[in-house]
Amino acid sequence: MSVTLFDKILDRSQIISGKDLETRYHHIWHMDQPLNAMCLLMPASTQEVSSIMKICFKNDLPVVVHGGLTNLVGSTETTGNEVVISTERLNKIEEIDSSSRTMTVQSGVILEHVHDAAASVDLLFPLNFGARGSAQIGGVISTNAGGLRVLKYGMTRQLILGIEAVTADGTIISSMKKIIKDNSAYDIKQLFIGSEGTLGIVTKAILKLEEAPSSRNAAYIGFNHYDNVVSFLKYIDAHLAGKLSGFELIWRNSYEQMTSVSHAVRPPLPYDYNYYVLIEALGSHPQNDHAEFQILLEKALEKEQILDAVMAQSPSDVEWFFRIREDVNNLVDFMKHDQHFDISLPIPLIGDYIGDRYESLAQIEGVEQIYAFGHVADGNIHFMIGKTHLGLDLKKEIDHCIYDGLKEIGGSVSAEHGIGTHKKDYLNLCRTPEEIILMKSLKSSMDPKGLLNPGKIF
Amino acid sequence: MSVTLFDKILDRSQIISGKDLETRYHHIWHMDQPLNAMCLLMPASTQEVSSIMKICFKNDLPVVVHGGLTNLVGSTETTGNEVVISTERLNKIEEIDSSSRTMTVQSGVILEHVHDAAASVDLLFPLNFGARGSAQIGGVISTNAGGLRVLKYGMTRQLILGIEAVTADGTIISSMKKIIKDNSAYDIKQLFIGSEGTLGIVTKAILKLEEAPSSRNAAYIGFNHYDNVVSFLKYIDAHLAGKLSGFELIWRNSYEQMTSVSHAVRPPLPYDYNYYVLIEALGSHPQNDHAEFQILLEKALEKEQILDAVMAQSPSDVEWFFRIREDVNNLVDFMKHDQHFDISLPIPLIGDYIGDRYESLAQIEGVEQIYAFGHVADGNIHFMIGKTHLGLDLKKEIDHCIYDGLKEIGGSVSAEHGIGTHKKDYLNLCRTPEEIILMKSLKSSMDPKGLLNPGKIF
Fold first, then answer.
1. Keywords on this record (chains A, B) (predicted)?
2. Distance (Å) from the alpha carbon of A43 to chain B's nearest alpha carbon
3. Would you call A431 and B185 a contact, using CB atoms and an 8 Å cutoff?
4. What is the pLDDT of residues B110-127, one digit of tens each?
């Protein structure tokens, strides 16, 4: 019955319901599981999203937004009674302004299309991660996505100048400005960034672009002591003066596994070290930058801050180096079942904390593989755990092993993936009761009926 | 009577009331005007601020926070019945962690002390502006201050990792983490940054530090056409690859005035051009960086993108170059009365918009001087207007002349100073009714009695 509510505001081709929902799914990894929802709507404008929300608000219909469906914490899950709003027809790049260095996009534009469009005018949208070919800007904003170049360019929050969003009652909040600074009262776009679709539906954004770099250097570096990883980070960051764009740490056993499955990911350095760091620098003088990078590594070798280093000598080397780090399937493919983590903690504490987790996890019956790696310059470590079965007790034991120590050291259960449904039970480990009460009061102030992405975060 | 309310929670030495208030003032420029308030309290801990707010909440007492009192939009003004909380005893730097590259400070620490403490361990807190010797971190956070190096390092919002704040009912919201990434639910610290003390009182913060640069280059450059300013910005930013830290534009008549009052601010370039740009680059290779900078300028001269350029040849030259730009008194001292502006607009539109304002302002009777300059790479222009009298009609005529066109082009009446009391009438020029309603609902959700900095922003 309820689907007919939307007939007046949308074309029939924009509404999917009944048996047709079986062609849809809630996550890109679960295409075989038919979507469980009241209907799926495909608005083509902010106005249509607003009209949908007005009907949902009047009729108390819960709403879940679907973008690229690559979220890793269950934020796009449905239970069956929701109106799903797909942003797939909000897919236009409306403008690229190369003088303002901005791109105006609808929220259904795929991240990789943003990259390509920026590159076509010698600009860069620096946000980058593995799922770029599917992830949409709306989802990127709603999770405050991070990725591989946060060190130099920041997370999504730092790359968004303007936002248009629709709130629970259908109000359009439009703040589509190309300006870099705006201290005219509260910066309300921050409410929509990283709130996982629980405070509003982003329909458009103005992205901040950067001038495209013309040189890219990369190297793998070997260490035995974590303290040297930290001192090298400070050294290389200071001496590259704004060019350091990536500083990825891989623990030895992860490196061995990542580099042993095929020639395409052969090891750039031998298996002699406890820690492997992949660094990247983006500059504007191909020849000078290569030489400078090499001299900095040589000096670090001389003073024994680093034990070994190999520089990429060509663009294909750079690709090879990053393929090792990016293709997480090389870790997961050999697992019976996997469980992944995305924790954040102070940089100097990472070595001990992760080392301790390796030891404790190894004691858990049912744990078969333990791989750690991550964006260490951002204090963000990913764990991939292989296990024998999907039992809830085992899952929780692994969760607690990794999460429980974070509270004491001021860490977070989510550096970049968000809370969604998967991490709700652990939110209190990294947020105080007072913070959670304040968050819930914001939620009930902006979405008093609790219609937007219900059951997520809290 | 009411002052006795605080006797139980504070020492007598922390309370100023009655005639003693005459030694206090509401703004550093108005030390001759005695403070008009119920009392002034000097808490020395977050807990004491919380206790004060619990009493104020119970007794419906409005609260205004006083830090360095350098705010430019009237945000520290009082009307007489307020409890003023001074942060002057919250003045401890609690920790510098050079591996995490963080500094933990109480909110009354003066910005310049932060700079010095960071420099003592070869780190940099990049936020920098003229009032650094008086402005306190709490005020910096509450206004989301910008300044001279936003281009490279961002505004305050990008430099704050953790915050502790007290809300209207005395609740302590503590999120003091050193982590760079934290997507565990809503980023509520954003609520306290830039909200001008209307949503909570910041008592502590964890600041993000950067590795200190070891080279600093600067140059003045002359242009006749604004389009070339924009193309040169893109050129130099692309080729300095992360090192460009300042790009300040000064209109010809402002440059003439700024450089004519003493030998200390003598003109680096002759008075031959319509626009003067001061650029700064921060790097890590003193010799290479100087040579690279010079070559980039020579190439721009060759292709006639720029008409003239003079590079600083020594640290004292750099100081000289910046003294010209920073000493706004050289503009104001010759005015009978002054009115200043802090607008934000898309970069490519600045030349025409400011040019038109020059023409329109010159038509207004009572306007004697018109000076424009600003952080053009951030789209942020300051106007200093000299006028014959303080009449309200003249003030409004000047306001409207500068502000009225901003709505159409997506600008803002405040790039970095905030709204306070001075710009309340113009908030609707850069915010939609829906945005303002949402802001007000946030305010009433977090401060239902309207006790925090009443009368500011709205």
1. FAD, Flavoprotein, Oxidoreductase
2. 21
3. yes
4. 999 999 999 999 999 999
